[in-house]
Amino acid sequence: MASNDLKRLIEATDHLAAGGFAMGAEWQEVHEICQRHEGEQPFDWGHALCHRIEGDDWNADYWYRRAGKRRGTGTMAEEWSAMRSELSARLEAEP
Fold this sequence. Notes:
By secondary structure, the chain is mainly alpha-helical. It has five helices and no strands.
């Protein structure tokens, strides 16, 4: 996994969060980053969050399963907070 792209995913999702998780350019950027890394757990998780934001629960659940996660029951902000912590720790652990 490319640490630069994981860092980009975190930064792009931070921008998406700052915009209230609204569909638009920030959402598209996160989605594109995740699509480039299909099959890698953190990016599949990000992909799941994108489709949850979109309101496409079936597709979101597919990506959650691929990421080994379950769709959160809290707010998008709560899910992103937990996700960001895990992704940041993973980034820090990389050589």
